[in-house]
């Protein structure tokens, strides 16, 4: 029996989703893509609904993507930013969330530098909460849009080989994708400088390859992660130059993957560090498709969480 | 007024006593201990009030060598009055309180303040542990000689481990001159730096920075080497890892003067308890793996770990009802320690006398304080408990000002029936 809606109040992580629920979100997103290609890119489905984005970390893509998604469904959106430095005291986070709640929004979308912060808020307020990235924990809508992008190209996720390369330690994108892709039957191999591989990452379902070459050999999908070089250089690896030699994706390394392998990156990319410009802009790159799909996936999630009987309304 | 505790099974690990004895209390002291019925003639004299310990264990008042009473400075979390009430409710008659108050207990006036407050308000003996370095900053030694004259028995920079090995060496040498016990919270902070929980699969899954077991073990190894070098005994606070147990075991086998304590949570919970970002499972050292828990139990069994201390760390919701990274470390423990320790007896890890030794004469011996034993002529500090009585932990009923216990709702066995301190009842169920 296929699912027709999500029963939970919040979307906090891929960890909480069943494969059926992931499929439902991806199918719904697939259906909603068409709206973004129309002349008038708007449907009235979420008219009268209020959605607040509440970001404690800078973000271009995710925030804009959620905003566009909400507007294409006719929801009213409001933004709040909190500088994380003035929010080291959590009662402020909770107080702010409660103040927001008092204005009766239907959904609050939170990004926060502390792992678990959206969970903390979700437990304590009535409106639904979407995790738009929490610390080093999860970024569920990113994983969903990545899965949608891969499924678009291959028609399936089951049986594919995904390689994730780079700074896995600090990456919520990696954690959500490892859980998501393995739930959908893909095999995930990770590689990166040992100082940036989280201990016991295999407990999430990933295999750890000793070298990047080994991880991407025969891969259907290569997902490169951003290196925050200003923070990591010196402490985690010797230099950006050396990083690029061992963990940067260039044409030569790309040739180890399957011929039609996809190259992905959650952005923003450091050209010439984790990915060479010719690969980033090359025919195998789906980096911009990821961004396009981000809107569709976020529309789907909004709809399934607060749109009532979802699938039907969208038509 | 004389008091008589009768019909109880008296266990005094220090004297290897485990027998049915009646205890006569007079003027706050133990006047006599004798076979049941020995005081029948006295009982007819109306001057004696009797306490029935039928079906109960009677033991020395428990000693907790590691608590935080928060006074002065954080009285909204706990005070000397409420903290010792919690102690009494948990069967304790003596506590050693750590120096991380506000201001820090690194000088005579703060120590005197604590002692004076305790004299007026405490319902248990309070032994202030003074800071080893000024401001817990790890650079300048405190006036340990003067502090010891005030009655300080131990020094520690608990929570702020002395990173500089040379300062630690000198602190130990200097403390040794005054017979002060040196207590070390072992954490290599340059390694634990960004961590908020044990480094393992749970931390990776939750995306929380990890504190590897090695952060604790490296410093325990250092302290053992310094104890060997200086000949000054070192006491290791709240041991939490299997590797730590092994290092201490080897040091003891080598004859190095080293003792150790663990806390009930390190043999009762694992890092899984953090799942869901449960800040009541956030402590330092962090909760470890099930293999570590097994090793801690083995270490207790083998007497590698000498004492059980609670690290009672009261916090209000202001510090705990937060996102995990921002929440404070620590849980309260005084009112659950005995029943959690008894789980080790129920599961055959320890026998009852051994378990009680770790809560009485062993910590008292490490601190060199007159407590933790039943001696005729000594202070009548006595705990009476029913070891099999089922209890459901209810934090709302705690005497402590704080509620931060991860054991709320736990079904345990063992109920304190009465706590007697200097002959007076300080708790009665």
Task: Briefly summarize what is shown.
Chain A is of the alpha/beta class and 315 residues long. Chain A is built from 13 helices and 9 strands.
Write down the overall geometry of chain A.
globular
Q: What percentage of the residues of chain B does DSSP assign to strands (E)?
A: 15-25%
| Share of helix of chain B, binned | 25-40%
Number of strands of chain B: 18
- Topology order of chain A in helix (H) and strand (E) letters: HEHEHEHEHEHEEHEHHHEHHH
What general form of chain B does the structure show? Answer: globular
Q: Quickly give the structural class of chain B.
A: alpha/beta
Helix content of chain A: 25-40%
* Oligomer kind: heterodimer
**Rg on CA atoms of chain B, Å:** 21 Å
Mean model confidence by pLDDT of chain B: 97
Main sheet makeup of chain A:
5 strands, parallel
Please report the number of helical segments of chain B.
15
Main interface by residue count? A-B, 27 and 22 residues
**What low-confidence regions of chain A span 5 or more consecutive residues with pLDDT below 50?**
310-315
Q: Roughly how many Å apart are the termini of chain B?
A: 22 Å
Largest sheet of chain B: 8 strands, mixed
The poorly predicted ranges of chain B are none
How does this structure look, described?
- The complex is a heterodimer of chains A (315) and B (429).
- Chain A is 39% helix and 14% strand.
- Chain A contains 13 helices and nine strands.
- Chain A has helices spanning 19-32, 61-72, 90-102, 117-124, 140-154, 172-183, 212-216, 229-232, 240-247, 251-254, 277-280, 287-306, 310-314; strands at residues 50-55, 76-81, 107-112, 128-134, 161-165, 187-191, 207-208, 221-224, 262-264.
- In chain A, helix 4 (117-124) links the parallel strand 3 and strand 4 (128-134).
- Helices cover 31% and strands 24% of the residues of chain B.
- Chain B has helices at residues 40-44, 80-89, 108-121, 144-150, 165-177, 189-192, 201-206, 213-230, 242-253, 264-268, 290-301, 317-320, 337-346, 352-357, 361-367; strands spanning 2-12, 17-26, 29-34, 48-52, 57-60, 62-67, 92-97, 125-130, 154-156, 181-184, 197-198, 210-211, 234-236, 258-262, 307-308, 382-392, 411-421, 424-428.
- In chain B, helix 3 links the parallel strand 7 and strand 8 (125-130).
- The longest helix of chain B is centred in the middle third of the chain and has 18 residues, at 213-230.
- The two termini of chain B are 22 Å apart.
